[in-house]
Amino acid sequence: MTALAPASVSRRKCLLSLSAGSLSLLFSERSSAGAQIEEPLIDSVRSALSSAVANRAPPVPEFPDIESRLAYLRWLGAMSARLKKKKPEWRVRKEFLQTVWYESRRAGLDSALVLGLIQVESNFRKFAVSAVGARGYMQVMPFWSRVIGDGDAGKLFHMQTNLRFGCVILRHYLDREKGDLFMGLGRYNGSRGKAAYPDAVLGARKRWEFSA
Fold first, then answer.
1. Strand partners, 130
2. 3 state SS of 157
């Protein structure tokens, strides 16, 4: 076997180093979370979930009184400060938080829980993709777009669509588990009955709790 010249060895090491770096970058953009498991839905549940994701109204906060508005603004300011490192641009950060606030309340969920779940699922990366194909902030599996949406899985990278699907699906799982957070979160992740994922989300939720 012919020995490689020193220059060839150097070029080869450089290419290997670049390849390793590229792979590292690729996998750093993937989510390490699991994924929902497709389950058969009865027609009434399918229809209810489809209706819950169908309304495309923009997430514009509405308040019954000035105190409620001020409480929201205090929440927005506190969450914005905590999220700044992940989303440095104020406009992007504000739109994201406003949508989380709107969609979590629309689904009857605690916004701190939703933010904790997003932290664990995607670390606030809009285009995160898991090893099994779950997409976006809340790592929604593409089959959901077929089961309760219009079938276009590409829309799961759209911020409001992803947060709408994620919150509706989480609400569905919590209802199935009669409000049991541990079991509902496990079902969301596809690891029902195992502690690692619920513990991670509930731990992350503490970072996003807020008292007005």
1. 31
2. helix
Q: What is the pLDDT of residues 16-70, one digit of tens each?
A: 333 333 333 333 445 655 677 787 787 878 888 888 888 766 677 888 999 999 9
Q: How far apart are CA 192 and CA 186, in angstroms?
A: 4
**Who's near 194: CB < 8 A, 6+ residues apart?**
186
The alpha carbons of the chain give a radius of gyration, in whole angstroms, of 21
Please state, in angstroms and rounded to a whole number, the distance separating the CA atoms of residues 55 and 174.
21
Query: Which residues is 100 bridged to in the sheet?
Result: none
Q: How far is CA 121 from CA 29, 58, 136, in A?
A: 12, 24, 9
Rounded Cα distance, 95 and 123, in Å:
17
Q: Under a CB-based contact definition with an 8 Å cutoff, are residues 156 and 140 in contact?
A: yes
The pTM (predicted TM-score) of the whole model is 0.81
> Cα separation of 50 and 48, whole Å?
5
Report in angstroms the alpha-carbon separations of 126 from 67, 91, 103, 115. Answer: 32, 15, 16, 13
**Sign of dihedral through CA atoms 208, 194, 136, 161?**
negative
The residue written with tokens 């509930």 in the block is 202
